């Protein structure tokens, strides 16, 4: 199913819904989304609205933009009024208490957190303070107000350096940096909470490498400062913001010598969160873990070639040595999510690159004014 903005500004849907799950009225009507103005959060909020949910977004806008919320509201059309935005930090417990006291929420999807691996190595205390303390306060407030259903945005970084692929949910977990450890610690906190109080229903989603953008080109990834991931770098080269892409490591034991990752379209990822939210209504759910990926590995050079084809732009490359800590090959086993969440990624790297370029071409400086220069 594809969406686009019609002349009226409403969202038009091309083709029938892809599954009965899209048509079903969700049982959890009112949802909090922390970090909902961010990249993955904003796409998930849109899918929630289109699915009939009422959504309260919490975001401190440290690494996101309020304009993303406005654009989501526009894309949602008639569902736009079901979105409310609350600019606050999760560590502000009185503000959080006030929100939960004002509305009876059915569940929380928790994205909020700092996420730059390199920065986490330089500033570990900032990451533990923001990610861990913010989550602990959120969980305390949820429990106090009887909201014990949670979907947590974890990460494949908790697998550390896997010895074999694909990664299954049963793999040992051992993160390699403070960012990854903050995700791992939160997972453990969630497991401990469930063991102490089985009224909780928690799903931990470990996802791999989100790329792409909404097909409208109206919302997408807009990292502050230097990007931490491959595709934002690629798109910034394509629009002329950077002269070349540096490829780290060309001597890996892969077909073209570059690292292999599991890239997943952000809309597929958003739909995975809706599937997880629906799963929380099952009596059998306690604290469960699911991978969200495509189950396929794509090398850096393969991804660059796909983007060049989608954009018609040549991406100049600079080859450099391996970065310390980089893993050679990582991709997901998605069998559990397919079986238990009734979810499977639909889009390939062609669609990912097409939608990423559409976003970049329409918004070369992200959510900044178009005449912005650096």
Molecular structure report:
- There is one protein chain.
- The protein has helices at 20-23, 39-50, 66-75, 93-102, 117-122, 124-144, 178-196, 230-238, 266-279, 300-311, 335-340, 349-362, and strands at residues 2-5, 11-14, 30-34, 54-59, 83-87, 107-110, 149-155, 201-207, 209-211, 245-248, 260-261, 263-265, 287-292, 298-299, 317-320.
- The protein is an alpha/beta fold and 374 residues long.
- Strands 5-4-3-6-7-8-13 form a seven-stranded parallel sheet, sandwiched between helices. A two-stranded antiparallel ribbon has the order 1-2. The chain has a two-stranded parallel sheet with strand order 9-12.
- It is globular.
Question: Could you provide a short overview of the structure?
Answer:
This protein is α/β, with parallel strands linked by helices. 37% of the residues lie in helices and 18% in strands.
């Amino acid at each position: 199913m594809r969406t686009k903005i019609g002349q009226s500004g409403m969202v038009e849907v091309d083709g029938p819904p892809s599954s009965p799950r899209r048509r079903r009225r969700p049982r959890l009507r009112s949802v909090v989304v922390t970090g909902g103005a961010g990249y993955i959060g904003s796409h998930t909020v849109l899918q929630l609205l289109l699915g009939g949910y009422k959504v309260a977004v919490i975001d401190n806008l440290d690494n996101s933009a309020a304009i993303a919320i406005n654009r989501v509201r526009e894309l949602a059309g008639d569902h736009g009024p079901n979105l409310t935005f609350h600019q606050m930090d999760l560590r502000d417990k009185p503000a959080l208490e006030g929100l939960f006291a004002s509305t009876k929420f059915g569940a929380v999807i928790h994205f909020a957190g700092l996420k730059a691996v390199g920065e986490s190595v330089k500033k570990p205390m900032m990451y533990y303070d923001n990610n861990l303390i913010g989550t602990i306060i959120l969980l305390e407030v949820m429990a106090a107000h009887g909201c014990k259903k949670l979907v947590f945005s974890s990460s494949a970084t908790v697998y550390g350096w896997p010895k074999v692929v694909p990664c299954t949910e049963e793999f040992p977990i051992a993160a390699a940096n403070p960012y990854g450890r903050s995700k791992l610690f939160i997972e453990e906190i969630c497991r401990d909470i469930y063991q102490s109080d089985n009224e909780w229903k928690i799903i931990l989603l470990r996802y791999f490498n989100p790329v792409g953008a909404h097909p409208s080109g109206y919302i997408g990834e807009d990292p502050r400062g230097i990007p931490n991931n491959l595709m934002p770098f690629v798109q910034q080269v394509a629009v002329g913001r950077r002269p070349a892409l540096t490829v780290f490591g060309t001597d890996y034991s892969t077909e073209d010598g570059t690292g292999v990752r599991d890239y997943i379209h952000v809309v597929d990822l958003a739909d995975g969160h809706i599937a997880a939210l629906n799963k929380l209504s099952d009596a059998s759910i306690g604290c469960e873990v699911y991978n969200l990926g495509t189950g396929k590995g794509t090398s850096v050079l393969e991804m660059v070639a796909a983007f060049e084809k989608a954009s018609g732009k040549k991406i100049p490359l600079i080859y450099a040595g391996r970065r310390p800590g980089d893993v050679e090959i990582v991709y997901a086993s998605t069998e559990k999510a397919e079986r238990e969440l009734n979810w499977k990624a639909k889009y390939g790297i062609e669609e990912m690159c097409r939608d990423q370029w559409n976003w970049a071409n329409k918004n070369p400086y992200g959510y900044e004014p178009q005449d912005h220069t650096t």
